[in-house]
Design brief:
Distance between the termini: 14 Å
Helix content: 25-40%
Order of helices and strands: HEHHEHHEHEHEHEHEHHEHEHEEHHH
CATH class of the largest domain: Alpha Beta
Shape: globular
Number of strands: 11
CATH architecture of the largest domain: 3-Layer(aba) Sandwich
Number of domains: 2
CATH topology of the largest domain: Rossmann fold
CATH superfamily of the largest domain: HypD, alpha/beta domain 2
Strand order of the largest sheet: 2-1-7-8-9
Largest sheet: 5 strands, parallel
């Protein structure tokens, strides 16, 4: 079986690949922001289908990976508060903090529970009215509307034992931080499909307007990604940067107004700490003062000791696109999915986990 035969529409994939090869004459470095894109790119062997002129770099699009050590240590400290039930998405359990993880906290007696939705956490609060239930809010604009909906529901029901620890982050400011840092020169951005379904393709207008860099919004099928790469190659060759929405079946220019309204109603934009990027202005979502009684940061006084950085881990540089995962000296040796040193090897969206899982295939 050839690589393109792994696609749903092999003939369409071959056509797009041929067009990329025919059009690409100048070297271009493209960054996919989304960790889901990284996994799809490697799973379907897309780099091996492209000409040598196209260099793909992974970006900070894994929400678990970019959660700062300080925020994770704070969440672990919350889990250790007596009577607290801390609820979280499953991937977050194994992410190593400075000294321990939520999995370790659970093994030591903390009540840490995996949920599939913040609404599950809300139900846990209903079922345990005499215990505080904290939901660890992790993710970008994609998950924030669900958490906002849970807060609004708790408010409507008068629940006084449901809380949110928000580490939610916004994607465009992180892209700005990477571009302004100047560590890696980029010729195009593969825009995150699910995020852009919420915020709208117009949210990326600053890339061509302010940085003269094209952006192509992509879905998660390999053919979607190839079409986005083709669009970026064409715009680079023509020196005509703009926004190309190759995921029009889901993404609109204005995004999802209802989801954006829910976010704006519950959260306020604030500075946020990113692993690998440091403090990025206006890149986080904090619970608004009107809903402060649901804000775990405000309600609980849990204070972890100063955070530490794992020795030798290069996750930060991987998240900024400066290094590819195999260039980290720990990759596949001291750091594996079974014994991860950094979060990029833990998450289902982590670049290191993707490279480890799919290395050697396709070559």
């Amino acid at each position: 079986m050839t690589l393109t035969e792994r696609f749903r529409d092999p003939e369409a994939a071959r056509v797009v690949v041929d067009r990329i090869r025919a059009r690409s004459n100048r070297p271009v470095r493209l960054m996919e922001f989304c960790g889901g894109h990284t996994h799809a790119i490697l799973r379907f062997g897309i780099p091996s289908l492209l000409p040598d002129t196209v260099d793909l770099r992974s970006g900070p699009g894994c929400p678990l990976c970019v959660t700062s050590a300080e925020d994770l240590d704070h969440a672990i400290a919350l889990a250790e508060v007596p009577d607290v039930i801390l609820t979280t998405f499953g991937d977050m359990i194994r992410v190593p903090g400075s000294r321990t993880s939520l999995a370790d906290a659970k093994a030591n007696g903390a009540d840490v529970r995996v949920v599939y939705s913040p609404l599950d956490a809300l139900q846990t609060a209903r079922q345990n009215p005499h215990r505080p239930v904290v939901f660890l809010g992790v993710g970008f604009e994609t998950t924030a509307p669900m958490v906002a909906s849970a807060v609004l529901t708790a408010d409507a029901e008068g629940l006084d034992n449901f809380f949110v620890f928000s580490t939610h982050k916004l994607t465009p400011p992180a892209t700005v931080a990477i571009l302004n840092a100047g560590e890696v020169a980029l010729d195009g951005i593969i825009g995150p499909g699910h995020v852009t379904t919420v915020i709208g393709s117009d949210a990326w207008r600053f890339l061509p307007d302010e940085y003269a860099i094209p952006c192509a919004i992509a879905g998660f099928e390999p053919l979607d990604l190839l079409r986005a790469i083709l669009a970026l190659v064409q715009m680079a060759e023509d020196e005509d940067p703009t926004i190309s929405n190759t995921y029009a079946r889901s993404v609109r220019a204005e995004g999802n107004p209802a989801a954006r309204q829910a976010i704006d109603q519950v959260f306020a934009v604030a500075a946020a700490e990113w692993r690998g990027l440091g403090t990025v202005p206006r890149s986080g979502l904090q619970v608004r003062e009107v809903f402060r009684r649901f804000d775990a940061r405000y309600v609980f006084s849990a204070a972890p000791p100063p955070s530490l950085r794992p020795s030798g881990c290069r996750c930060g540089e991987v998240l900024r696109g400066v290094l590819s995962p195999p260039e980290c000296p720990l990759f596949g040796n001291a750091c594996t999915p079974r014994n991860p040193v950094g979060p990029c090897m833990v998450s289902a969206e982590g670049a290191c986990a993707a490279y480890h899982q799919y290395r050697g295939w396709p070559s």
